[in-house]
Each structure stands twice: as C-alpha cells, then as structure tokens.
Amino acid sequence: MLQVTDLHVSYGVISALNGISFKIEQGAIVTLIGGNGAGKSTTLRTISGLLRPRSGTISFLGEDISTLPAHRIVGRGLCHVPEGRMIFSNLTVEENLAMGAYLQTDAALNARNRDYVLGIFPRLKERLRQTAGTLSGGEQQMLAIGRALMGNPKFLMLDEPSLGIAPRLITTIFEKIVEINQNHGVTILLVEQNAKLALEVSSYGYVLETGRIVLEGPSKDLRANPRLKATYLGG
Amino acid sequence: MIEFLQQLANGLAQGGIYALIALGYTMIYGVLRFINFAHGDVFMLGAFAGFYVGPWVLRVSGLGPSYAGVALVLLAAMLLCALIGIGIERLCYRPLRDRPRIIVLITAIGVSLLIENVGQLVFGADPKSFPDLVIDRALVLPAWWGRLSALTITLSQVLVLGVTLLLVVLLRYIVNRTRIGLAMRALSLNPTAAQLAGVDLDRVIMFTFGLGSALAGAAGILTSIQQPSIDPLMGISAGLKAFIAAVLGGIGNLPGAVVGGVLIGLIEALVVGYLSPTYRDTIVFAVLILILIFRPAGLLGTVQREKV
Ligand SMILES: Nc1ncnc2c1ncn2[C@@H]1O[C@H](COP(=O)(O)OP(=O)(O)OP(=O)(O)O)[C@@H](O)[C@H]1O
Ligand SMILES: [Mg+2]
C-alpha cells in the first residue's frame, strides 16, 4: 500500500532522515518506534506532504506522491493525525468533524462515517456542541482520530496518540485503533515512543534512530529483542 | 442632548466605514498572521475605481444618480479591488510565505508606498471631486420622532450604514455558514491541521484577500459618497484608523473589527463635536496606546494560548 524508498529529508542544513526505506502492506498495523528526535514525525510529515524530501520516493497505491501538495494527498485517502493532536480549538467538536470531511462530497458516506466515529467514541457524541479546546487531552485525541476518519482514509498515520494522556484512556484509544484497523478496514502506521504498547497492537515494526532504520521485524520478534528491551521496553 | 445624538449619528456612519476596512485587516491577519499595510491603499483604489468607472456605469446603464446606480458602481469597485487584492497577494506575499514575518511586513509597507506613489503619478496628486452617484440631501424626519426630528440625518449616512450592515451580515454568513468560511476559520486556527484536512491553503488565502479587499473597495465608494473629495493618499489616514479599530476590537476577531470600527468613528465624532477637530487624530492614537498597554488582545480578543 505504501512504499518509502531511500528517503532523505532535511530542515535547512540539518539532516533529519538519512535514507530510510520501509513498506506497509494493506490491512496491517505497522509501527515506527524510536526515541526523541529520531525522525518519526519528520517521516510522517514528509509522507503527508507537509515537508518535501530532498531525495527518495514515496509510493502510495502504486503512485508516487512525493511531489503532491498535502491537500491532494489527503484526497487520495491518506490521512495523518499529527503529533500534539492539532484539533481546531475554537471550533466545536461538530465543526472539527466537518473539517475532517472537507474533501468528502458524498453526504450519505459522511453520515455513515460520522455515525461510526461517534459509535467508537461516544464521549464525542455527548460533546458535539462543545468547543474542542475545552476537551480533555484524551478526548482531544479521540477527536483528532475521529476527524481523520471523516476523511474516509484507506491509510491512517497516527503520531504518538498516547502522548500526554491518562493511562486508562491510552488503553481505550489503542483498543479503538485496533478496532479501526480490523472492522473499518483501515491500514495504519503507528508512531510511538511507548514501544511496548505499539508492539502489542502491531504486526510489524521499524526502529528509527537519528534518521536511520536500525532494526525491523515482526512485532513479536521485536518484543523479544534484547537490544530493544534495554533501550525502549524498560529492561 | 440633540447635539450629542447628532454627533453619534455622524460618528456611526464614519465608524461603519472604518469597520469595513478593519474587517479586511483582521481577516488577512487571521489567515496569514501579518498586517497588510497596503490595505488602506486598496480602499483608496476603490474610491478611484468609482471615480473612473462610476460615470461610465451610470451612463451605459442609463440609470443616472440612483440607488441602483450606487449598487452597480459599488459592485464594480468591489470586484476590481478583489482582483487587485488577489494580485497583491499572488505577486508580493505568496513568494514570501515561508519567510520570517518581518520580511512580509516590510514588503507590505513597500507595496503601500508603491501604490501611493504610482497613484499620484497616474491619477494626479491633486484632489478629485467624486461623481454624484446619488443626490445627497438631509432627510425630513417624521414628526413622531418628537424632539429627535431636529437631527440632521443625510441620505448618504443612511445609505452608508445600510450598506455596511448588509455587507457585515453577508460576511458573517460566509464565514460561519459556508464551507470556504469554515476553511478560513480552520486555517486561522491551525494551518497545518487545515492542510491535513484537505484545505488548499493558496485558494483559501486568495479568497480571503479577495473578500477583504472587496470590503475595502466598498468602503472607498461609501466614503466618497459622503465626502466627495478623493486623492491618492486618502488611504493612509483611513487605513491607519481602521487598523487601530481592528487592534481595538482584537486583531483576528471579526465582530471585534466591527465594534472597534464603530467605536473609533464615535470617538472621533465626539472629539470633533466637543473638543476640537485638531485633537481628533491625537485621541485616536492615544486609544491605540492605551489598548496596547491595558488590553493588548483587544476588547473582544482573547490572548492566544497554544495548547501543546
Ligand atoms: N522545524 C524543524 N526545524 C529544524 N529541525 C527540526 C524541525 N523539526 C524537527 N527537527 C529536527 O529533526 C530531527 C527529527 O525530529 P522529529 O520531530 O522528526 O523527531 P521525532 O522522532 O518525532 O521525536 P519526538 O519523539 O520527540 O516527537 C530532530 O533532530 C529535530 O531536532
Ligand atoms: Mg515526533
């Protein structure tokens, strides 16, 4: 579904990604883990068109998308839930969801997607008219994911959905991520610092360190990997 | 008392015009986070559009000075100014989109000076008298207004206020009820998230410049109906006052721009009526300084706190 080949990205003279390659099969949950500043968010921002790669290709559903502007990439069914959630804080929950469906013109489909989102996140349903900025961190993350789902994605990229959220809600959100993948048929790329959790829900994982992929493999193998255990899985 | 109300009536019409210009400042600030210093000059170009196109429109349409004539000239000036605003953004600001804000700000000052000087070259620096789009007169107020019927209210004042109100309602509808309006609000809150939702930033920014500039163009016509002497530097003072109005109301806040515009208009009228016309500008600038000291986010603005 998505194939990234030899991607180089830099911010001015600072190089952030030094030739990473990876591949995501349709229907999978794949995780990209790594410490602070490894380049995880940079990877997602480049795939979704917010950043331009210096070199390398990004192929989505067989077509190169590395030169498309961000709004065209969304239109192809590749949605990105950014780090820090980035909900529209002064808009209501309802308006945030409407923004998610900005490019979707099929009213019946929008209604179905809305029902689905409110079905998996009932908390949002109770707060439709509330200003999004007043939601709790966990609710904002639900809204950010819900907003992306309104864009009818085939492929969803989540950047640290567990960041700054109460442990109880993290469990809920990860359950929903699995649900979205299994019942809604959305392929998922999950970026996490919480490697333990990410490797539990994913089938395959990549480990990023200072702009390079240093390790990859089926998640259950990575969970047992001694090197990973020492650095990311808390011994 | 009548004297006071008279000043309020005068101030209200002028305030409406400031409000229209202030809306443009605030809208453009909302999507691009910079002050388009050339906005006052777009207002001036609106007046000159009326000056050149007005007589022609009235003749060709066979309407002569009339409400329909005003409406036509107003639409023509709004359209022209929208195109000019879009052109300015496309040529001068878009190439600098990713540069530091200060560079764009200085460019805007440059664009403003350019328009003013080319304006003097092309239109001539001397004041021109604006054509009569409508025959102005003092309205005869109905007797049941009692003592209030002693007020002098002119047709042009009513016209200006009516059109301003209409445009503000229309703008409100566009911003709050349409898809592009939602995109404008989303963009002003978080450009990255708006892009990730599929918003084409270039298009929304273009639309915003067009809309804001059209309002400035309308203000140019409305001003000229009231004070039929126009010149290429008329945008400096009006633009500055409207900018102060936008800051007073809270920059980036649309209702704030309207409130700020009306307040500045009223303050000016009261100063002229009760103190002296000499103090008019001084007091308005004092208001700016006070608001920056005591309420920098403006009357209706909230201090932006980014949640990370
Ligand atoms: N806007 C920017 N300008 C300059 N350098 C940047 C910018 N954004 C990120 N970087 C640098 O690029 C590198 C990768 O950053 P990135 O945000 O992709 O890391 P990350 O893996 O997402 O980290 P975290 O887990 O902390 O979010 C870092 O060294 C960072 O300092
Ligand atoms: Mg990150």
Secondary-structure map:
The complex is a heterodimer of chains A (235) and B (308).
Chain A: E1 2-11, E2 14-24, E3 29-33, H1 40-47, E4 55-60, E5 63-64, H2 70-75, E6 78-81, H3 93-100, H4 107-120, H5 122-126, H6 137-150, E7 155-159, H7 167-183, E8 187-192, H8 195-201, E9 204-209, E10 212-218, H9 219-224, H10 226-231
Parallel strand pairs in A: 3-8, 3-9, 6-7, 7-8
Antiparallel strand pairs in A: 1-2, 1-4, 4-5, 9-10
Chain B: H1 2-32, H2 39-61, H3 67-93, H4 101-123, E1 128-129, H5 155-177, H6 179-189, H7 191-196, H8 201-226, E2 229-230, H9 234-249, H10 254-275, H11 280-294
Antiparallel strand pairs in B: 1-2
Helix pairs in contact in B: 1-5, 1-6, 1-8, 1-9, 1-10, 2-3, 2-4, 2-8, 2-9, 3-8, 5-6, 5-8, 6-8, 9-10, 9-11, 10-11
Bound molecules: adenosine-5'-triphosphate (ATP) and magnesium ion (MG).
Question: In words, what does this structure look like?
Answer:
The complex is a heterodimer of chains A (235) and B (308). Chain A has 235 residues and is of the alpha/beta class. Chain A has one domain: P-loop containing nucleotide triphosphate hydrolases (Rossmann fold). Helix content of chain A is 39%, strand content 26%. Chain A has helices spanning 40-47, 70-75, 93-100, 107-120, 122-126, 137-150, 167-183, 195-201, 219-224, 226-231, and strands at 2-11, 14-24, 29-33, 55-60, 63-64, 78-81, 155-159, 187-192, 204-209, 212-218. Chain A has a six-stranded mixed β-sheet with strand order 6-7-8-3-9-10, with helices on both faces. In chain A, strands 2-1-4-5 form a four-stranded antiparallel β-sheet, with helices on one face. In chain A, helix 3 packs parallel to helix 6 and helix 4 runs antiparallel to helix 6 (137-150). Chain A is globular, with a radius of gyration of 17 Å. Chain A starts with a strand and ends with a helix. The mean pLDDT of chain A is 95. A two-stranded antiparallel sheet of chain B has the order 1-2. With 308 residues, chain B is mainly alpha-helical. The radius of gyration of chain B is 19 Å and the shape is globular. Chain B has helices spanning 2-32, 39-61, 67-93, 101-123, 155-177, 179-189, 191-196, 201-226, 234-249, 254-275, 280-294; strands spanning 128-129, 229-230. Chain B has a domain at 21-228. Chain A binds chain B through residues 48-50, 69-71, 74-75, 79-80, 82, 84, 86-91, 95, 98-100, 102-103, 133, 147-148, 151, and chain B through 179, 182-183, 185-186, 189-190, 192-201, 307-308. The complex binds adenosine-5'-triphosphate and magnesium ion. Magnesium ion (MG) binds next to helix 1 of chain A. Adenosine-5'-triphosphate binds at residues 11, 14, 16, 34, 36-42, 83, 193 of chain A.
